[in-house]
Amino acid sequence: MAVIVAHPDDETLWAGGTMLRHPSWQWFVVCLCRASDSDRGPKFFRALKELGAQGVMGDLDDGPGQQPLANEQVEAAIVEMLPQSRFDLIYTHNPTGEYTRHLRHEEASRAVIRLWSSGKILAKELRTFAYQDGNKSYYPLAEPADVAVNLSSKIWKQKYELMTKIYGYGPDSWEALTTPKSESFWKFSKAAPAMRWLDNGGKK
Description:
Elements: E1 2-5, H1 10-21, E2 27-33, H2 40-51, E3 53-60, H3 71-81, E4 86-92, H4 103-118, E5 122-129, E6 131-132, E7 141-142, E8 147-150, H5 153-166, H6 174-178, E9 182-188, H7 191-199
Parallel strand pairs: 1-2, 1-4, 2-3, 4-5
Antiparallel strand pairs: 5-9, 6-7, 8-9
Helix pairs in contact: 1-5, 3-4, 4-7
């Protein structure tokens, strides 16, 4: 199973409960940004150990300016970092992101869907994170999507502790307050519908 995200902590925030619920699955996490971040880089690999996953980090620009990246650049980074091209299941961001808004999340989602559609990566199923924040009016919440799971208190606590104890976010931080107790995903078994969805702005 592959999880392709923009930043260290995205894997935990949006899909960490799912990963913890399936410890027998072979998880591989691609993080596109922050490989040279001396703080968050090591934390990412500590989090992966707790999640029972392997992974790799890239170093796409993630500076405060947030200039758009070319589709080809993001796609090439993903292909280079994946250990193989075929997976049973791939998880990634939503084309609209999980909150209002983060360009790198949107670019990651678009790149994964385009790669799947072009056959450069293969998957039996693609799942995109399904969260929204009401245009910043509340913390991101899981949508009633194709796959929706309410996390047990035990699993959520493990996930929350990854955010606070491993990644080091304080209890009053946006990240800690956001940490979803439910996780949901839009799922696609064929690339063509996912590409049409992308072309429609990622709106169901």
